[in-house]
Amino acid sequence: MVRDVAFGQYFSGKSFIHRLDPRAKILLLIAFLVIIFCAFNYFSLLIVTIFTVLCVAFSGVSPKFYFKSLKVIVFIVIITSVLNLFYGTGEPLWQWSIFKITANGINRALFVTVRIICLIIASSCLTFTTSPTELTDAIERLMKPLNKIHFPVHEIAMMMSLALRFVPTLLEETDKIMAAQKARGADMDSGNLVKRAKALIPILIPLFVSAFRRAYDIATAMECRCYRGGSGRTKMKTVHMSMRDGAACILTTLMIIGVIVCNLIFTAVI
Amino acid sequence: MSSILELKNLSFVYGLKTPFEKKAVDNVSLTINRGEFIGVIGHTGSGKSTLVQMLNGLIKPTDGQVLFDGEDIWKNPKDIRKIRFKVGMVFQYPEYQLFEETVYKDIAFGPLNMGKNADEIDNAVRRAAEFTGLGLNLLQKSPFELSGGEKRRAAIAGVIAMDPEVLVLDEPTAGLDPVGRDVLLSQIVQYHKNRSNTVILVSHSMEDIARVADKIIVMNKSHLVMFDKTREVFSRGRDLEKIGLRVPQVTKIMLELKEQGFELPDSVLTVDEAFSALSDLLKKEGKIW
Predict the structure, then answer these.
(1) Which DSSP symbol is given to B94?
(2) Do the Cβ atoms of A183 and B88 come within 8 Å?
(3) DSSP 8-state assignment for residue A15
(4) Per residue in B41-85, pLDDT tens?
(5) Which residue of A has its CA nearest to B20?
(6) How confident is the model at residue A8 (pLDDT cuts 50, 70, 90)?
């Protein structure tokens, strides 16, 4: 079921990447995601790949789980790479009516495959090693400057962490409600689209009702603990940049320089 | 008595072939006869909820068989819905499954899925409401306007309306006030008497089980440890305590008195029984006349 998906799961641990400042992790991830799409030849692509492998190695999470998170996007990878395969420019190596494969097309397909895989693995590396609370905290800190233009940063971050916290709860609830309605003979696996959509009503309505109930409950519980929004609120865990984060920044910068240098030295293949 | 449900070497493993693999039910075999009132007890996580969900095919066993009327319920997986109408299942906190505009429509959901006609449905809804003590004036209300206890009744009525041959209830009294518990429990007993069909009750309350069940299934760590007449099971109070369960308070007192050397019957299930047993004893010893 939905819960088997490893993508977005958190594995607690004490690895190098686990102990990085979550803010640094987010910023470095963004930098890396940009640079993935700036690799235009095989040498820079190799550097990107090596960096991804290093991320996996330093995260202390079994590669098994990274493969699992890749499972979800296998289809996207196949479709985009096949499309790219036929969209290349230049001399065709093989042609059949309007379909032609060129050397450029093969390169493109390979690049897009490696890029998407690196992208997913690097993002998984962030979610695998950073708890949802750390993540929303970091986002809140990073978006703090937006407060100046009256953007409700704290409220958005609070909503995000509450939403994340309720994902597993609501999944469990869905399972229970589904079982209860199935026990009353609800038929969800047959019939046409309209019939199937209608079959969802007995599940969605109780789910919404319970989501609202839980929202009221949590609002009351927060008020009971004197929650009154973000202003003047201190944090139980404050994060500090350390030597470790510096090292990670240097490594990432080296990788970026490597990619840029390779791009300059060698000719682009796509 | 003929058997209605037969479990043969039934096992269920959660998350088969994953690192989170966990055995929930391990090799359970037993036979439930038509018309019996069965209690199911066990510690939290002992596998009792998984066990009862296999009875109507909500969970497919990883090993073994469930026979209903002598036939494997998974013989034809497409027909599994029919089994769900024959083995009605009331989950914990069933009020969370209510969804229709009116209580009437909600109770009618099951019979409607069975493909009954309007008259039959009307009949079934009214009978079910009556059985659960739900006033007919509530039927046209929205289920979300009802009180907690009424919602529970409406949800149970939704299952009873399908007129199942076996009714499974998973902790039907959890979260109700003491009066609500007693009333609901006696209504279930009444229902069992009137329709003389099979009832399987999962409960944490030994007092409730002692009062109503003919036989008890005891689960511990995914294994079936006892399946016997209520009196026999509760006479083994020490064994039950070993697996973290207890016997009804009055049964425990009587067991301890017996261990002190008083001549008392093996297991006493209710306060009334205890009273008569003790007065018999006192009479015999000449303390009262």
Answers:
(1) G
(2) yes
(3) S
(4) 998 888 898 999 999 889 999 999 999 998 899 988 888 888 999
(5) A4
(6) low
